[in-house]
């Protein structure tokens, strides 16, 4: 069965960005001039997944509203003849058919995915985390869908990270040889085990799970039986570990696609700023002015430079 639906968990509290996220959902923080969540929905739509479910919470109404039409604002821009901005705000409402469901309590990523069971049904589906942005020039999700099409089961996005950072991620044990690329760019590996945020000296590898998954509907039954794990939350990594152990016996293999492209972690303050600067510098309407200023600022010593009177 082909994948048609995408689930985007967006119920987190965004505590790392307080006080900005006291009243503004972290998913609505702007990356240049678009909220981060729009990049993620656009990625799903680009991969052919135009049925998108947002898993939100009580404080995330602004996220849902962003993908709706805004008649009053559209009318004001039409009266001004501002067709450029009019096209931009209409684009977000036309990316996909966006639905939402609420996660009543913050019980972990696994629980957020389980909240999507009623909408997804008995179909494979993709999960895209809202604070992981994948550059549109790097078709990770498209390749993951190709791996699912070839092997069935579930597929996880992986990325090599420095060894001192493995304790921040779910980490995979993979077969030492790849099964070969199912797509065009990235290595595909068979996952044998997974562990959530292991101590550095206990990590089985430096292959970390990043925020892209293509999941078999079998994950729902496993999640229903998965007890709270690290942080007293229901961990998606634990459910995928169960599926990886079942493997071929249950017809539910778990593969990984080792990503080597451009990824922006907007859940971290420094990485968020790096993403904004990099994407802005690459924009033809902004970069021509921003990049020379940035070069001058850095060459002058950056924040150490005396700004003068």
Automatic annotation (TrEMBL):
Q: Which SUPFAM superfamilies match?
A: Nucleotide-diphospho-sugar transferases
Question: What is an annotated GO biological process for this record, any one?
Answer: UDP-alpha-D-glucose metabolic process
Q: Which GO terms describe its molecular function?
A: UTP:glucose-1-phosphate uridylyltransferase activity
- Keywords, sorted A to Z: Nucleotidyltransferase, Transferase
Q: What is its EC number?
A: 2.7.7.9
Q: Where are the transmembrane segments?
A: none
Name assigned to this protein = UTP--glucose-1-phosphate uridylyltransferase
């Amino acid at each position: 069965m082909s994948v048609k639906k995408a689930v985007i968990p967006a119920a987190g509290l965004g505590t790392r960005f307080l006080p900005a996220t006291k009243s503004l959902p972290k998913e609505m923080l702007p990356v240049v001039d678009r909220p981060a969540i729009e990049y993620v929905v656009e990625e799903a739509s680009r991969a052919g997944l135009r049925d998108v479910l947002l898993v939100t919470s009580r404080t995330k109404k602004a996220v849902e509203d962003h993908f709706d039409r805004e008649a009053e604002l559209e009318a004001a821009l039409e009266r001004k003849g501002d067709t450029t901005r009019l096209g931009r705000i209409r684009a977000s409402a036309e990316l996909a058919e966006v639905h939402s469901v609420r996660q009543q309590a913050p019980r972990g990523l696994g629980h957020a995915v389980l909240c999507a069971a009623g909408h997804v049904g008995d179909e494979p589906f993709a999960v895209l985390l809202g604070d992981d942005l994948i550059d549109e020039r790097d078709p990770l999700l498209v390749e993951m869908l190709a791996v699912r099409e070839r092997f069935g089961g579930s597929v996880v996005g992986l990325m090599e990270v420095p060894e001192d950072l493995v304790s921040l991620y779910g980490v995979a044990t993979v077969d030492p040889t790849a099964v070969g690329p199912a797509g065009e760019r990235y290595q595909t590996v068979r996952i044998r085990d997974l562990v959530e945020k292991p101590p550095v000296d206990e990590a089985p590898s430096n292959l970390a799970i990043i925020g892209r998954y293509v999941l078999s509907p079998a994950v729902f039954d496993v999640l229903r039986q998965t007890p709270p794990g690290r942080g007293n939350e229901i961990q998606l990594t634990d459910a995928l570990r169960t599926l990886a152990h079942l493997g071929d016996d249950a017809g539910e293999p778990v593969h990984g696609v080792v990503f080597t492209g451009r990824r922006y972690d907007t859940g971290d303050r420094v990485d968020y700023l790096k993403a904004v600067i990099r994407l802005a510098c690459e924009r033809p309407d902004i970069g021509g002015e921003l990049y020379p200023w940035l070069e001058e600022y850095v060459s002058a010593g950056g924040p150490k430079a005396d700004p003068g009177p």
